[in-house]
Amino acid sequence: MISTSLLSLVRCPDCHGELAGPPESLVCRGCGRPYHSASPDYLDLRPRVAYAEQTKYLDETLHTDARHEKVSPPLLGSRIRNDMLRSFLSPEAHDVVVDLGCGSGRALLWNRDWGSATVGIDISPFFSGEARRDVDLLIGDLRKLPFADGTFTKAYSLDVLE
Questions:
Q1: Most buried in the list 50, 55, 98, 116, measured by CB within 10 Å?
Q2: pTM higher than 0.85, yes or no?
Q3: Listed residue (81, 83, 121) closest to 101, CA to CA
Q4: Which residues 6+ apart lie within 8 Å of 29 measured at CB?
C-alpha cells in the first residue's frame, strides 16, 4: 500500500530532495527527476545508478511458482527467528521501523501488531498480495536509500547481508 505516512518519509535516492505529487507520478523537488510506479500498491524509487551486483531474487524465473504471493504463519525456524526479532527490537507505538530487504513482506505482516509505523524496502518487486494491500512498500536499492537521514528509529534486515 502507499499511505500518506509513507509519502511523508520518502526522498529522492539520488539527491535526497523531497518528492511531490500523487504516488503514481512523484517528482523530486531537488533534481526534478520523475518517479512513475508500475503498481498502485508500492512505490518504485530505485536510484539512477545501476550496480553490477544484483540479487538472484530479481530473476523472474525464480518466482514463476508464485510462492511469494502467499504468506504463511511463521513456523519452526521462522517462528524462532521472528520471536527473536520481536524481542530484540521491542518496537513501541512511537517507533518508525524499516525492514531492509523485506522480500515478500512476510516479516512485516507477521508483526503488524507492533503498533508502530513500518516500511518495507526491497530491490525486487515480488511482494505478496497481502503485503501489497496492508503494508507500506517500495522498490529501492539499499545502497542508496530513498529516505532522509534519521527517518527510522529502528531497522532490521533478514537474509540480506549474508
A1: 98
A2: yes
A3: 121
A4: 17, 18, 19, 20
